[in-house]
Give the backbone structure.
Amino acid sequence: MTPHRQEEAKKRVPAHVRVVVDVHCPVCGASFDDIVRSGRAGCAECYHTFSDRLKPVIERIHGEAVHRGKVPGANLPQPRQSSQLVVKRRALREAIDTQNFEYAAALRDQIKALEEGGGRHA
Amino acid sequence: MHKWYQEAGEQNDVVISTRVRLARSLPGYPYPKRMNAAGRQQVEQMIYEAATNENAAVGHQFAYWRMEDIGRTDGLSLAERRLVQPDFPADRMGGLLVTQDESLSLLVNGEDHLRIQVFRAGMELESAYAEADHLDTILDKELHFAFDPKLGYLTQDPANLGTGMRASVLLHLPALHESGSIGRIAAGLAKLGLVLEEEPFDPSNEEEQTSRYLLSNRLTLGLNEEEALRNLKSIAQQLLVQERTARLSLAEKLEMQDAVSRALGVLQSAKMLGEQELPDLLYRVRLGIAAGLISGVGVEKIDALLMELQPATLTLACGRRLSQSQRDGLRAEVVQRVLG
């Protein structure tokens, strides 16, 4: 193909598909190809970087199962975040009861942020 | 120096030993196969500190072996004592932290950044798991093992995702082996996510006939640790009953009694015992003891002999290099001290 035709061809391919070809894990540098060839992940982050493409690989081994076993840190005293959540949820209920809707909206955002940002990342 | 395999374990007429291993990894570091020396050093350092000086909560003293520095005989002996796979010392990349009785060990930078490994004599699944779990929880506070809510613990091999747990019991099943039913039993177990496979004492010896079988769980994602252990224990107990029942008729056969007597005869009178011939002889005697044909010595003495008379381990105990025939002669002496 001439360079001009390559450019034209590229434009017809959706952007998100084009990018997939050269993704490397930001922590260990592995490509999806590396993982498939070796049968091993490059690092824990690979399971996030390549989560979509690893899904069928994992399902072939484990079926559609999800983790139901031990969760790290579950036995330990609850992190302070949890008590923040309890306090904020109570405050939200009160704000709604007293029709303080602006405050309620702000609290709702904070609660959402705590729920999403909390927990373990690999 | 007292070792776990010298204990008289529960149900040890059939169950030789129990093993529980947990696979864990550190976030932010490539897995061992992709890691360079600097990374390996850092991971080793972190795990070492979490398990030793920094952490009184661990409650154990560990000896520390680096595969880069270990001598050849020491490395071979670690593999003989089942603490590491044979290629682990040869690869010169990992480390091993191990308690004095060797029942608890930490494998660093092998198949995963960390594998916690617990051994017990006999059938001890709950207590072995409890020990591994306890250490895992303590180390996790420092090391923050890589974990995903859907995939569980993130391991180098996707086959270990989830609990990262492999629990197994090592069984002596000569009567079931003799009756030819092992194949059928194993096929049935596969559907339950359990594997029953031959586990020779010395895999390099194709002639070995020790009827050792390993029963282990293979499901790590989708069920929790307690469920997996319950299944394993339940099946192990069924196998126990089947083997004991089959042994009753086997013990009445003259051929079997003859095989046991001959084995005992050789062990009691030989001047030299080679490492290849020893397992068959000792396992026949083990059956004889368990079936009540031989008295005066417990099966745990047999298990200890098997471990201690392996070539590198025997050499280390002796404290000096031995020739093949010196080893074989020493082996005969030690066996006769135990079996009379």
User: Anything to note?
Assistant: The helical segments of chain A are 3-12, 15-20, 32-38, 46-49, 51-62, 80-97, 101-117. Chain A has a mean pLDDT of 78. The interface with chain B takes residues 27-30, 38-45, 47-48, 54, 57-58, 61-63, 65-73, 75-76, 119-122 of chain A (CB under 8 Å).
